[in-house]
């Protein structure tokens, strides 16, 4: 059994005042919660503020992206050592929005994963297919190719993988539990093939229009070990409800 992980990806949302208020409310709502790992991934401008706010709580801090180089002439980028200095435990890599809007490739993401692992920060690799790819019957092939390409040279630890069907991100159209379970199962089998027993210890998350209303259904799958939450992570009560529900659902890997 793998300990559930619930991550909140705030994307490009949140001011300092909003961040402070959110964390205060969330900490109150989650008081006494201890069976789930919780991570907040705010914009870069809020990382230090959220770090200070979560203080000695059990909430982890994560970033939404990073550059593969430790330093250099890369205007507008942030390095792994910078994230480490802010006590970031996780970093989201390969999100479909980065792939689509910025043109990130599997090869670029692979370099970032290696950099994160070399510094002991856990990369959260996002993979997923478009509706066109799924309708063409190529969804599984596409996603597993992303997994293998992005993990070229990488280790099974530290690592988290989030399956986010592109057609379900921010659309309100979530994948069915059967669709999610089928893809997570395929990813798990690929990881075991790549890493043997270590592949069974990689936590697999589902993402894509996750809400308090559907989280229990996804986590009921034996292949889901948590969720990467987008819009619902911007409301403290909604996010806290997701975490609370995750506490009651066993996340089993096979």
Q: Overview of this structure, please?
A:
The protein is an alpha/beta fold. The protein has a single domain, classed as TIM Barrel (Alpha-Beta Barrel). The protein has 10 helices and 8 strands. An 8-stranded parallel β-barrel has the order 1-2-3-4-5-6-7-8, surrounded by 5 helices. Helix 1 packs parallel to helix 2, helix 1 (16-29) runs parallel beside helix 10 and helix 7 (139-150) packs parallel to helix 8. It is globular, with a radius of gyration of 17 Å.
What is the overall silhouette? Answer: globular
Q: Estimate the strand proportion.
A: 5-15%
> What is the tally of helical segments?
10
Amino-to-carboxy terminus distance: 9 Å
Count of DSSP E strands?
8
Query: From N to C, what is the helix and strand string?
Result: EHEHEHEHHEHHEHEHEH
Biggest beta-sheet profile: 8 strands, parallel, barrel
Structural class, by secondary structure, is alpha/beta
The average pLDDT score comes to: 94
CATH topology: TIM Barrel
Which CATH class applies here?
Alpha Beta
Number of domains: 1
Find the CATH superfamily.
Answer: Aldolase class I
Name the strands of the widest sheet in spatial order. 1-2-3-4-5-6-7-8
CATH architecture: Alpha-Beta Barrel
Relative helix content: 25-40%
- Rg from Cα: 17 Å
Low-confidence runs:
none
| Assembly state of the chains shown | single chain
């Amino acid at each position: 059994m793998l300990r559930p992980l619930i991550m909140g990806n705030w994307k490009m949302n949140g001011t300092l005042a909003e961040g402070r208020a959110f964390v205060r409310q969330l900490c109150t709502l989650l008081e006494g919660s201890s069976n789930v790992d919780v991570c907040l991934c705010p914009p870069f401008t809020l990382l230090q503020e959220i770090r200070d706010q979560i203080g000695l709580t059990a909430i982890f801090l994560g970033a939404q992206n990073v550059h593969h180089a430790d330093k250099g002439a890369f205007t507008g980028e942030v390095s792994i050592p910078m994230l480490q200095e802010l006590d970031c435990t996780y970093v989201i890599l390969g999100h479909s929005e980065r792939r689509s809007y910025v043109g990130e490739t599997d090869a670029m993401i692979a370099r970032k994963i290696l950099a994160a692992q070399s510094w002991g920060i856990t990369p959260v690799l996002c993979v997923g297919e478009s509706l066109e790819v799924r309708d063409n019957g190529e969804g599984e092939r596409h996603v597993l190719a992303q997994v293998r390409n992005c993990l070229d040279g990488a280790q099974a630890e530290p690592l988290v993988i989030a399956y986010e069907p592109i057609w379900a991100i921010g659309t309100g159209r979530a994948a069915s539990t059967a669709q999610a379970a089928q893809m997570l199962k395929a990813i798990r089998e690929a990881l075991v093939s790549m890493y043997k027993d270590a592949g069974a210890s990689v936590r697999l998350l589902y993402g894509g229009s996750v809400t308090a209303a559907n989280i229990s259904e996804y986590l009921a799958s034996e292949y889901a070990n948590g969720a990467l939450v987008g819009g619902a992570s911007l409301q403290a009560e909604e996010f806290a409800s997701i975490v609370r529900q995750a506490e009651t659902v066993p996340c089993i890997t096979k």
